[in-house]
Recover the amino acids of this structure.
């Protein structure tokens, strides 16, 4: 998710160390199933967005917009159907995927938390079918994917915030994973082992220690992910700093996302371990869970306001430091 990059001040760090992390349930729209509801992005000002399964309809999902904590099902205009939320940025713009009768599309819902919100379609790529996108950054660039209508070959797409046709990222360069605020694309190596950075067509390899690595997210030039210290055992959370050096995240088995202040989410001990947070590589705390909940999935959203979202087997959860 693309958000403004900033450096956490000493005052912010002191406040976070003194506060208490509180977990609460995310309210679900009437007639929707909490177990199949996921928050996908936030504007870091108390609003967020995601998807929820309509009860009694098999696997029909609706896009949901939470404004001031209250959910609203997004009604698709015209002949647009099957809307899915992918991401959201601090401007309150929501990245969507949807279907028209003759095509699939990547869309932006601007001013999503205002009555005046509007949905616009991004340009397609001739000869390709648009697939669900990957990320939206703070300035409005969009990272997406498409598949050749003839041969089935996949490519990454980068739509610039300035408008126009998307830039093509060939699959040989890597698989689209995340997008930084300056337009740098984080790619997974085509072999799914290791990471690369793509900037205006130039590919740079991330440092690799000869172990199986899985990059997850990028923010402010820092990349987080994890590697197996041995073949598919002893997972270790990693952070690549702005100079490309690898640093181990203390006690982390995984690292899934990083926000503008360097807050990292992941799991301790194992890939099924306790959900926890770090400041860059320094351990902060394990996250509390509601009564009866033993764990959460890796589907974390970390806002720049340090509000976190994930989901358990019973429904979506929200954490805030109060």
């Amino acid at each position: 998710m693309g958000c403004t990059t900033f450096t956490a001040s000493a005052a912010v760090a002191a406040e976070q160390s003194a506060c208490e992390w509180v977990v609460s349930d995310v309210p679900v729209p009437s007639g929707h199933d909490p177990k199949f509801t996921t928050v996908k992005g936030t504007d870091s000002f108390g609003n967020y967005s995601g998807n929820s399964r309509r009860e009694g309809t098999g696997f029909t999902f609706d896009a949901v917009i939470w404004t001031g904590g209250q959910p609203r099902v997004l009604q698709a205009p015209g002949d647009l159907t099957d809307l899915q939320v992918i991401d959201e940025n601090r401007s309150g713009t929501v990245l969507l995927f949807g279907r028209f009768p003759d095509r699939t599309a990547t869309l932006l819902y601007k001013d999503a938390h205002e009555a005046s919100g509007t949905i616009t379609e991004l340009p397609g790529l001739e000869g390709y079918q648009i697939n669900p996108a990957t990320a939206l950054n703070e300035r409005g660039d969009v990272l997406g994917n498409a598949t050749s209508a003839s041969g089935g070959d996949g490519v990454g797409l980068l739509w610039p915030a300035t408008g126009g046709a998307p830039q093509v990222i060939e699959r040989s360069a890597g698989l689209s994973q995340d997008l930084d605020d300056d337009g740098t694309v984080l790619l997974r190596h085509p072999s799914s082992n290791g990471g690369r950075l793509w900037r205006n067509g130039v590919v740079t390899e991330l440092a690799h220690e000869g172990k199986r690595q899985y990059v997850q997210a990028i923010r402010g030039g820092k990349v987080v992910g994890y590697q197996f210290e041995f073949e598919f055992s002893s997972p270790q959370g990693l952070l690549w700093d702005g100079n490309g050096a690898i640093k181990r995240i203390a006690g982390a088995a995984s690292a899934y996302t990083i926000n503008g202040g360097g807050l990292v989410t992941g799991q301790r001990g194992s890939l099924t371990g306790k959900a926890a947070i770090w400041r860059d590589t320094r351990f902060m705390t394990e996250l509390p869970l509601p009564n009866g909940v033993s764990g959460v999935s890796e589907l974390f959203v970390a806002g720049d306001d340090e509000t976190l979202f994930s989901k358990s087997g019973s429904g979506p959860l929200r954490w805030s430091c109060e």
